[in-house]
UniProtKB/TrEMBL annotation:
Keywords: DNA-binding. This is TetR/AcrR family transcriptional regulator. Residues 22-41 bind DNA. It comes from Flavobacterium ginsengisoli. The keyword DNA-binding applies. Pfam families: TetR_N. Gene3D superfamilies: Tetracycline Repressor, domain 2. Residues 1-59 form the HTH tetR-type domain. It comes from the Bacteria.
Length: 199
């Protein structure tokens, strides 16, 4: 039952936002009493912590699956972006990350410190892969570019209220990031990926 509550809560939090969803909403959606939820979670914050931890695990599992498919570095980044778009496709109004930072800053900080390590490693691997494939310039300062991209992405998510707006700006950031690193061959691949989205 505990796992079912976490799964349902995660789904509602992503769809409607962390602040908007109440314990009553979760109980109503599951056709159980609020008392049943409180049997497993002493308050909403604990449930949010468990839910964000579940979502975090799911995100990284899907990312690993995408990376295992061995796309080229640029294609890989676009596939990962697509995954995030699908995850948040039901949420057009409020960005869950923005809400989490605003209303539950402590939980947000805990996730952030863990997420920074995971994301920087992911970005680093992608850049090194792109250099090996001749899609990114070999003279890049990898650590600086990792920091640039990470700063861009986190800034967008923390400060953009609307999820659809955040996704639109993220695509611009991905194009900006890729163009800054790309070789001629890389620009061709980037144009190919952008064309797929625009068609």
């Amino acid at each position: 039952m505990k796992e079912k509550i976490i799964a349902k809560a995660s789904e509602l939090f992503l769809k409607l936002g962390f602040k908007s969803v109440t314990m009553d909403d979760i109980a109503g959606e599951m056709c159980i009493s609020k008392k049943t939820i409180y049997k497993y979670f002493c308050n909403k914050e604990v449930l949010i912590e468990e839910s964000t931890s579940l979502v975090h695990g799911q995100v990284h599992e899907i990312m690993d699956t995408i990376i295992a498919k061995n796309y080229n570095a640029i294609h890989e980044n676009f596939e990962i972006r697509e995954m995030f778009r699908d995850m948040f496709k039901n949420n057009i109004d409020t960005s869950p990350i923005y809400q989490l930072k605003k209303h539950y800053p402590e939980i947000y900080q805990n996730i952030l410190s863990f997420e920074i390590d995971q994301c920087t490693q992911c970005f680093r691997d992608n850049i090194e892969k792109g250099i090996r494939e001749g899609l990114y310039r070999s003279d890049l300062n990898v650590e600086v570019y990792v920091k640039f991209y990470y700063t861009l992405v986190f800034h967008i998510n923390e400060n953009t209220v609307s999820e659809s707006e955040a996704q639109r700006i993220e695509l611009e950031a991905l194009e900006y990031h890729t163009r800054a690193m790309a070789t001629e061959k890389g620009v061709e691949e980037l144009e190919k990926q952008l064309k797929k989205i625009r068609n």
